[in-house]
Amino acid sequence: MGVSGVTTSDPTVQLLLDRAEIYDVLVGYALAVEWGEWERARDSFAEVFTLDDGEQTITTGDALVASLRRLERFTFNRD
């Protein structure tokens, strides 16, 4: 997925390539959460990150997946 590894000396084209790659990651993450594909959702994040939603701070992929799975019981209808 994405255009990883593709670069150009044209800054406008590079901006478009970067935007396409960011879009691919965001859509992949959103679909993974929607479909309950937790490993794929975890793989959307870097090894080291900080996610602070004001109530909790998450710094690992496993903690992110655990948080999403708790939310799933209250927000997602998979029937």
Question: How would you characterize this protein structure?
Answer:
The chain has 79 residues and is mostly helical. Helix content is 58%, strand content 5%. The chain contains three helices and two strands. It has a two-stranded antiparallel sheet with strand order 1-2. β1 and β2 form a beta hairpin. The radius of gyration is 15 Å and the shape is elongated.
Keywords:
mainly alpha; 79 residues; two-stranded antiparallel sheet
Produce a short descriptive summary.
With 79 residues, the protein is mainly alpha-helical.
Coarse morphology: elongated
DSSP, total strands:
2
Largest sheet: 2 strands, antiparallel
Please state how the strands of the largest beta sheet are arranged side by side: 1-2
For the CA atoms, what is the radius of gyration?
A: 15 Å
What is the arithmetic mean of pLDDT? Answer: 84
User: Uncertain spans, ≥5 residues at pLDDT below 50?
Assistant: none
Helix-and-strand structural type: mainly alpha
Assembly type: single chain
Topology record:
Blueprint: H1 11-35, H2 38-43, E1 51-52, E2 57-58, H3 61-75
Antiparallel strand pairs: 1-2
